[in-house]
Write a structure and sequence with these properties.
homodimer, Rossmann fold, 2 domains, two-stranded antiparallel ribbon, 31% helix, disordered N terminus, amino-acid biosynthesis (chains A, B)
Chain lengths: 406, 406
């Protein structure tokens, strides 16, 4: 930890009866907990997974009442490095402008947890980790997991840390799906919830874009039917194409126009060839080539699949409102005007469902031309909204303001 | 020809001083003219191309005044089979509902020409054709061509057929780019022009989507640096991924939702695997796998590049209106509400530029939820618009109505 104010929580004095063991907390990767040794996770696909590992980062201190915990859920290609530099890329944490001492998600006030989701590749159990049954990487032997499974793995993490109730669960995109799943399934353990730039079910268009990415990966001969790790290969090219295809959907035409337009890359005239003539091409290629250095191709398959499978209404007789009946959770739903991947209309459907059960919900559509990625960027209206909501919720929760530090 | 009313034109009595020779007109592929033998095409890249072949289909009869010719320009993956079955897929012509005797583009009244664009793969010269200098397929030795080059090849075709002036030039998407280029560069040879679902310059977002497709093709080891035809391979997987990625952009979220939603494909429950669980996945895979049977991967690279390079303002000092100064052409600009690839705003910019030079222009934004593909589909408002515009223009041009057939 580079910032002394960001510290691991005091060791929880209660653990989940020996099902958790902490490994590697002294490494740069942060704590990795082995969970589910005695009680495997029952996955939605019917399989059982255990033991499994959850890697996470924690910031701030859990208070004596254990009432100030915020769970941050990351997106498809995100990870637990929400507020400190990424160990592979060296880039700042993906929400470092939001999370830290004195920031909107104030680590002087809150205890912030961010676990790497099940199925991912930054330390939590996923297809690149070793299958204890074979001693080799899971590859496609890893079970297909769901957003619900990700949440249940997080439940085990909280059980282990002795946190009965989250002050808030927050996340954007796939993180927002986890937020909705958390609040719907465990309303007694969630005081407030902030689903951002997300939906209650993955749309046909979004499934289609994900399928393109998966096909790009599976078309790469170096994917080896998913067994590339055992065969000493990596489907870099397919994964890069998948990333490029997805990346376009994270932006907006106005943002691309403003950022790149038709400007040429390091040249005065068109090359009449297939090099990256345009800045936007060069940018996309860069996005593809840097992504493959930090992400596992099979994880990309599994996590996109989990998102595709997400349909919160389906679990509740096809009626979304039923997912929230009697909910005590305070909601703040956020969307962005130029987000065409998770458009405001889908957030509005969540709000309508919450209104239908008389839930406590506020809804803000933030004006932004930055597309879906806006939730990761410096958007003052979004940050102000979040700050206001958290302050209000903290007051209701009786959480004191952070003490003034000398 | 299956329909007796669709016949080749009477042999033109004037040819372009021996630069054209007709080959293979008796084959199912339709006429293929070898042009530019004495006078090669000067391409925008600086290279010269000649001889080159233009394959085309013709429907109806050229009148004695040679004043009733309509040129139809096809889109990226289209071809000359506009009104009769495709020789590879066996499917109806891509505008068969619009083009034919008694239809909106009435082949009893008009002489309709549809050439395969330069760079494509259905008979016109492109990267898969034989390079006369080497006796082997061009591959990447084919010069990078532009929309302007495609138009100039069509100009040579018209010269050969003895058609000085087109009654109308019509096309959607990339076809619309050719329409704009025709009208801007050869206003004296175009009486009326209908650019549909198109733009005056390819946007940054569209360049980005094209770059994804190109990277998918070039990532396929069977692409062999573009030399696959000489090496007996075909980059089927990469081309299929490119097609899938592009195909999503041709539709709209509402259309995908209506057509597929989250419905499962031939199964009652999720498979918890990576097969095509959802109908939309199965549909996309089908789009990819059928496309590779009829399209050449290098052609895909070249034609997407031509679209990316298109910027009609750039050729005119950065001011689009300058492209149309003093134009005598009658324009009908058409866009579709749900087309997010070539949104109405871009058509409106064309209309504004035409208004700025006091051109004769009508503009219709057709309400449709079918996305960019709407221009290929049965959209009554679009068809009515086109019928009304053509009738009015024909009256001004003094073209008689089709004679009543017994």
């Amino acid at each position: 930890m580079t910032d002394p104010a960001l510290s691991q929580p005091s060791a929880p004095d209660r653990t989940d009866s020996g099902t958790g063991s902490d490994t590697g907390s002294e490494t740069g990767a942060g704590p990795r907990l082995v969970l589910g040794q005695e009680r495997p996770l029952k996955l939605d696909c019917g399989a059982e997974l255990g033991p499994f590992t959850v890697a996470y980062r924690a910031y701030g201190r859990l208070n004596a009442e254990r009432s100030n915990a915020i769970l941050i859920c990351h997106a498809l290609t995100g990870d637990q490095y929400v507020a400190d530099p990424h160990p592979i890329t060296g880039k700042p944490g993906w929400w470092q402008q939001l999370v830290g001492p004195g920031k909107v998600i104030d680590t002087d006030r809150y205890f912030v947890l961010c676990p790497n989701v099940l199925g991912s590749c930054m330390g939590s159990t996923g297809p690149k980790e070793t299958n204890p049954e074979t001693g080799r990487p899971y590859g496609l032997d890893f079970p297909v997991i769901t957003i619900g499974d990700m949440v249940e793995a997080q439940v085990r993490l909280l059980d282990h840390l002795g946190i009965d109730s989250l002050f808030c669960v927050i996340g954007g995109s796939m993180g927002g799906m986890q937020v909705l799943q958390w609040a719907a399934r465990h309303p007694d353990r969630v005081f407030s919830a902030v689903p951002i730039a997300t939906s209650w079910r993955h749309s046909a268009q979004n499934i289609a874009f994900h399928e393109v990415g998966r096909q790009a990966i599976m078309a790469d001969p170096d994917w080896c039917g998913g067994d590339y790790l055992n065969q000493g290969k990596t489907p870099h090219r397919g994964l890069a194409v998948a990333r490029m295809a997805a990346h376009v959907t994270y932006l907006s035409e106005p943002a691309l126009h403003r950022k790149f337009g038709r400007r040429l890359q390091n040249r005065a005239a068109l090359s009449f060839g297939f090099d990256a003539d345009f800045q936007v091409e060069s940018y996309l290629r860069h996005q593809g080539s840097t992504f493959v250095e930090r992400f596992d191709a099979n994880s990309y398959l599994y996590i996109t699949r989990a998102m595709d499978y997400f349909d919160l209404a389906l679990e509740h007789g096809g009626v979304l409102a039923n997912a929230f009946t009697g909910t005590p959770v305070r909601y703040c739903v956020v969307s962005f005007t130029s987000d065409w991947l998770f458009p405001t209309s889908e957030s509005r459907q969540v709000v309508h469902a919450l209104n239908a059960v008389a839930a406590n919900v506020s809804f803000v559509e933030v004006a932004s031309d930055k597309g879906h990625d806006a939730f990761l960027l410096d958007e003052p209206q979004f940050h102000d909204t979040l700050a206001g909501f958290l302050d209000g919720a903290a007051e209701h929760r009786g959480l004191p303001h952070a003490e003034a530090t000398p």
